Amino acid sequence: MFRRSNEMADHLPSLSWRRIVPAEETLTRMRPLLPIFGITRIANVTGLDSVGIPVVMVNRPNARALAVSQGKGTSLAAAKVSGLMEAIESWHAEHIDLPLKRGSYEDLRYSNRLVDPAALPRPASSPYTPFMPLLWIEADDLIAGVTAWVPYELVHMDYRLPFPQGHGCFLASSNGLASGNHRLEAIIHGLCEVIERDARTLWSLRDEETQDETRLDLETVADPLCRRLLTRFACAGVEVGVWDMTSDLGIPSFYCRVVQGSEGPGQCIGPAYGSGTHLIREVALARALTEAAQCRLTYISGARDDLLREDYQRLLAPAEQARWLSRIRLGAPVRDFNALPTWGGRSLRGDLDALLDRLAAVGLAQALVVDLTRREFGIPVVRVIVPGLEGVQTSSGLLPGPRARRVLGR
Fold first, then answer.
1. How far, in whole angstroms, is CA 11 from its chain's centroid?
2. Which of 113, 141, 215, 372 has the most CB within a 10 Å radius?
3. What is the reported pTM?
4. How far is the C-alpha of 95 from the C-alpha of 112, rounded, in Å?
């Protein structure tokens, strides 16, 4: 139902969001399938905030992971598609029907091509050893053109108890889980996400003074879409700070913080954040800004079932509010948006090749994709894993990989 021809993927029109099908068309195609995925409601929560950037939440009460997904966009239709696709991706990762192998790394590595577990993100509390039995799933290596088996924990999102054998060894999250109107679109989205999380983790490890040297001068942003988004925040009395967190990969990546600056009801909203990565710098910035708007509405609606009372208490602490407001107001923006790298590919295949070339240029030799697409639905869904990239920095602690250790100086 959702597959498009390779010709369309190879000759993509110039679209700011790089989608080969309009959001309205995707939305129409998905609606009949929503009951199958357990989606009971799409709620437009935009009006709960004064910013006005479209945000929705999608309810899936019987989910095996998060029961609420968020979506954002520059139109309500785009926000609905964003939220629905996030929910549908999660469903696919919760209901994997692909073959698995069971065994330790030492048991399987002589007869199977396995990813090196040392190159994968792990929590600081990981009990992993090469002799621990794990579940493994097969992935396609886009760079080498072969297949390799990866730990199942990095792919599935079925978090029902009891957990599968070996759970807790690797950093389980939704990182790299992506969908699209075409398989290439899904893979590119997944690659951009793992690159973004790596860049954000590396940037967050730097001291505040070094971070401030990456502050973006928003007055140098001329893109009409980004300017409209910035105006939305300004009209709502919300102050915006953006930092260039582009890593050595050279793929434009931005970190955005938005804080209520004016007195009024908005003072009870915590400092929200967003990040975005894309080959085109304007798209990357727009993603960071819309995600920050989504984050604000996540706090306002209280819909996420993984945010606890102590999270809100920390976010709403006067010291936290003052710290970020001061950092935005007093920090001197130093980077010209127009001087940052951008890649103007003319097709999805060209975009994918550019991303793979950048990974290879810094010595990352694998880009692994597990295709989770279900034949009966035909919605391209993939899980992307790039060994060597850093995982999501979490409160539980991330065991630093080689890239993080270089930033930390050890």
1. 26
2. 372
3. 0.93
4. 25
Q: Which of 289, 297, 202 is nearest to 251 (CA)?
A: 202
Peptide bond into 162 cis (omega under 30): yes
Cα-flanking dihedrals φ and ψ of residue 22, to 5°?
Answer: -60, 150
Q: In angstroms, rounded to a whole number, what is the distance separating the alpha carbons of residues 51 and 74?
A: 12
- Report helix, strand or coil for 231: helix
Question: How far apart are the C-alpha atoms of 73 and 56, rounded to whole Å?
Answer: 9
Q: Where are the alpha helices (DSSP H) in 13-67?
A: 23-30
Query: Ramachandran region of residue 184, left (φ > 0), alpha (ψ -120 to 50) or beta?
Result: alpha
- Strand runs (DSSP E) across 46-97, as ranges? 55-59, 68-72
Mean pLDDT by 10-residue block, N- to C-terminus, for the chain (410 residues)?
39 45 92 97 96 97 96 96 97 98 97 97 94 97 97 97 92 95 96 98 94 97 97 96 98 97 69 96 97 95 86 84 91 94 85 96 97 96 98 78 89
DSSP 340: S
CA 5 to chain CA centroid, nearest Å: 26
Q: Compute the distance between CA of residue 18 and CA of residue 188 in angstroms, rounded to an integer.
A: 10
SS3 category, 158: coil
Q: Cα 282–74–258 angle (5° rounding)? A: 70
